[in-house]
Amino acid sequence: MNKINRQFFLLSAFVLILLLSASIGNAQQKGFFGKFQFIPKPGDTLNYRFLSPQNFDPLKKYPVVLFLHGAGERGNDNEMQLSNGVKNFASPENYEKYQAFVVAPQCAEKYRWVETDWKLPSHIMPDTPSLYMAKTMKLLDSLCKLTYIDTNRIYITGLSMGGFGTWDAISRWPNKFAAAVPLCGGADTAKASLIKNIPLWVFHGALDKVVLTIRSRNMVAALKKAGGNPIYTEYPDLAHGIWAKTYANPKLYEWLFKQSKQ
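Structure (tokenized):
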């Protein structure tokens, strides 16, 4: 990298941090999920919603929860990604009890967090992350540069298409996340050894015909074979739509926010 490019990169990074700091301030004033755009370079935009901790103190350190929505919430309205599950993090009880930043990016129509067919009984992880997964990780990396982010407590969760995204993200960046909660998703079982040490709570419905239940069963089995110890919850009477029940479970939040890479 030559001197001019390096100076441009450093200036861009500084401006980006200022914009993220402003986002935090605005989100805190609203007390709800603020609406923002992440633009690492001209023409490259990622819509996201952002929840700041209650009584945010810049001298403290806070965890971050990255939430990946399902296929039905794709678009460019920066609204639909809040439709299922993520608002539970802002419920009066959780918002007061668990002080954290929650980031909910939106994947555009015709794109996926992982470029694979989720109806298949298995898949091989693509060599490179999808376009919107790459954008999301740039956003997360920028947040992690802020002094009040606890980089030992970065969590990720997602449902359906976002469940696939959750598995994909931890498989590509296993050292980044302190815990993961994939719902009705699937992953490449050959990657189990890479993520065996990440605390995982996996959820699926036994009657699921959209994403086959064996996707989670096989991944949990592969993790255990590799020496991991994931928690697995399978709902015997539910099909694909398990997120309402899962994200309403107070034990999930208690478990999640206890996890730390330290």
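The helical segments are 3-30, 92-97, 131-144, 161-172, 192-195, 214-226, 243-247, 250-256. DSSP finds eight helices and eight strands in the chain.
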